[in-house]
Amino acid sequence: MTQLSVAEVDKKYNVRPFVEAPPSKSGLVPIELESVDLSLFKEGIEHLPARQALAKKLEKSLSTYGFISIINHGIDTEEFENLKAVAQSILELPVEVQKDYLAGTWKSDLEDRSISLGAERGPGFKPKGYWSMKNGVEDSIIHYNFTKMLHPAFFDSKVPEVAQAHLKEIADYYRYIHNEILRKLTILCDIILEIPEGFLWENYYKVIEGDYENSGQGAGRFMLYHNMNSEDEAKVDGNWLRGHSDSGGFTFITSQPILSLQIRDYFTGMWKYVGHTPNSFIVNIADGMEFITGGYFKSSIHRVVSPPDDQKNYRRLVLIYFSTPKTSCRVDPEPLNSPKLKRLGFVKPDEWDKITFGQWYEEKARLFGKKNVNDSKGDEPNLVLLYGRLHERWHQAEANFTIQEARKRFKVIEL
Ligand SMILES: [Fe+2]
After folding, report:
1. Cβ distance 316 to 228 under 8 Å?
2. FRET pair for 208, CA 20 to 30 Å: which of 230, 268, 318, 372?
């Protein structure tokens, strides 16, 4: 078989610009995230004051909302547009093609999670309708996961033809996020934590080619949200993806105009929309970083809801990067030896087991879609105690919210 050129592949799969929704005129007021201009980050001792100023700007957000936005990071509009066009074509592939590249099974309920990572974690497609939501409704989201893209083995992955034609760009994009943007962000975190610059990178996130156990890792996801019909939408109260916290290190999401992503306000517990800044990344702290900082940085709860009426007929496309620390690292603050955390009292609580990130990541994955976890009244799931830590922390702002207190007020599932 003769190999098609990239232009021929693009023609075959109708690779074309993704049409974003116009800004909403609904009058909904999104939250203002602290924005970090990464072009102000420069290496070298002479630029330390500039890095310190950036770190100072970030600290409050990382320790409360757990969300920031990053601008001027070095990826330009054209690169985003090209990748969104490719992502659109991958996510439009018919189910007959998807079936050869499934990340798990067709339905979450059929997944044997004692042996499978599920479609949330495995490479390939999570088909539409994989998750069962409330009242018999199934999700309208399709995603495609990439794994191992920080290593040469990525190029041996079995991927659909249209992805294969653009694998180099996909790898370059995710590697740049990890090795440049994430690395700079971890250096700003070192400054906040008063530990040597480079400590978090060297010990938690650096990539050693081919050594998966001792490398920082990441998973890429192209994710397309289709509109849900109004009947189904009413049955799930307009909630497209229920509130949750991410498991890894830092999550990077491309900003897009549809008002849909909400974060749970750290101070009030109210849901707030995240607004749009073109070409920016929305970045959130995930569980691993919360534990590594002894709870100082917050892995905050976020969800995706139905958009306002004037954006309902558009599809929402996001490119996500879930960075994770190396699986062998400890997820508590002791190895950091941070004077700042000690001063503020963010030390390892006695009830936290000494575990690795890998243990947390695997165990939390087993909770996805579990009925006894999600079968709760209201937004908040039943709480699960994993290695002395709650699987999601919905009460971070309540200073006295101990595990004893959680047991008194909520159903806590003990594993
Ligand atoms: Fe998330």
Report:
1. no
2. 318
Å from CA of 303 to ligand 1 middle: 7
| CATH 2.60.120.330 at 6-350, yes or no | yes
Q: Which two tokens stand for residue 3?
A: 């190999």
Cα 6 to middle of ligand 1, angstroms: 33
Q: What residue segments make up the domains of the chain, in order of their start?
A: 6-350
Q: How many C-alpha atoms does 14 have within 13 Å on its Cβ side?
A: 6
Is residue 261 within 8 Å of residue 141, measured between CB atoms? no
Instruction: Give 177-190 pLDDT, tens digit per residue.
Output: 999 999 999 999 99
**pTM across the whole model:** 0.95
In the reported structure, the alpha carbon of residue 245 is separated from the centroid of ligand 1 by a whole-number distance in angstroms of: 6
Distance 136 CA to ligand 1 centre (A): 23
**Alpha carbons within 13 A on the beta-carbon side of 200:** 28
Tell me, in angstroms, the distance from the centre of ligand 1 to residue 378's CA: 19
Nearest to 338 by CA among 286, 287, 295: 295
